[in-house]
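Repro:
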Amino acid sequence: MTMLQDILKFNEDFVQEKKYEPFITTKYPDKRIVVLSCMDTRLVELLPKAMDMRNGDVKIVKSAGALVSHPFGAIMRSLLVAVYELQADEVYVVGHYDCGMSAVDPEAMLNKMVARGINPETIKTVEYSGLDLKEFLRGFGDVATSVKKSVDTIRNHPLMVKDVPVHGLVIDPNTGRLDLIIDGSKQ
């Protein structure tokens, strides 16, 4: 059985046995916050528990490194939707220590793309179109600095209302300890 088949079989039983009932809630976050966090597997359950969040409490947006890499990209759009359409009153950017994005080597990733079948000419075409792939794929060195940059991008976005606090934190993926980087209510 493939992973997909395993998931679909589990889901069939999940629905049939009504195991979804404890998770029924509305689309509006009870705590009126939106969290931007990393997609790291260690945070799937740890982050909500470390922040006392339950199903229905918050909106969670995930990106590699908890980065807002473009002010008019999908991550920023999701944050704006959470604030304007889904009643979020605060934004939390939560990076984490030992993040994979801190070690991303754009050249090595491009080599992996070629090794997995991406034609080098395709990479040249993308670069010719004006996208600096090495910059696009670049990670970051310091997680606190990266969190500050994402907070700054969100807070200073021309479409973000100024009375929404944008907080920055870093979580330890082993213990769940949160380190405050920016208290958005003091900005």
